[in-house]
Amino acid sequence: MLEIKNVHKTFGKSEVLKGVNLSISKGDVVVILGPSGSGKTTLLRCINFLERADQGQAVFGNMNVNLKAATKKQIHEVRQKVAFVFQNYNLFNNKTALENVTEGLIIGRKMIKEKAIEIAKKSLDKVGLSDKYNAYPNELSGGQQQRVGIARAIALNPEIILFDEPTSALDPELVGEVLNIMKKIANEGTTMLVVTHEMSFAQDVANRVVFMDEGTVVEEGTPKEIFTQPKEERTQQFLKRVL
Ligand code: ADP
Fold first, then answer.
1. Where in the cell is it found (predicted)?
2. How many A from CA of 214 to the centre of ligand 1?
3. Separation of CA 119 and ligand 1 centre (Å)
């Protein structure tokens, strides 16, 4: 469904991505693990053009996009297929939960307001926020705000959702509610690419785990392969530190 090829990105003198390849099939839940600074977030951001890669391709079915030189039109097309969930939620603080979800449908998808509201309500219901349609972000807990972020992504009915450390800004007691929603939508067959430090999510929900270090994919496999028989020394060392 999505093939990422040879992604390179340098910030100043620091080469953050050194030719990353990744292949994702429909229905996959792929978790990217790796030490802080290994390029995981940058990779996600390059796929969705929040960051411009220096080199690389993304192939969505029969659509082949150059990650460095994509046109505005191509970026728009990619964003029809790819939704993004941010670490810090990225909600509009002056809009209600419902308006945060309808915004992308009305502006990005040119949907009429009534239809957008109907879809947004369904999405908020799905993440357990049917009683919070009219709440503003500052009236919601971090976990609830991130659930609005997830509702906004699923409302777009994308082919894939990219999650950039979706629970790392949350107080520990709020992490579970967000992971449970992610697990629920994964079980419904949503294709997901998730950067996270939540090892239990990687072990229980992912069907593939990718370990990155210093801008490259060091190793990938099933959760069982990666967590019980990692082949590479760097993967072994990382898991020793985090488990
Ligand atoms: P990870 O998600 O694995 O922690 P990141 O992709 O966030 O890694 O960061 C990789 C490296 O790139 C880090 O050293 C980070 O400081 C650097 N970096 C990320 N974004 C920028 C940016 N916009 N400008 C300069 N350096 C950046």
1. Cell membrane
2. 11
3. 35
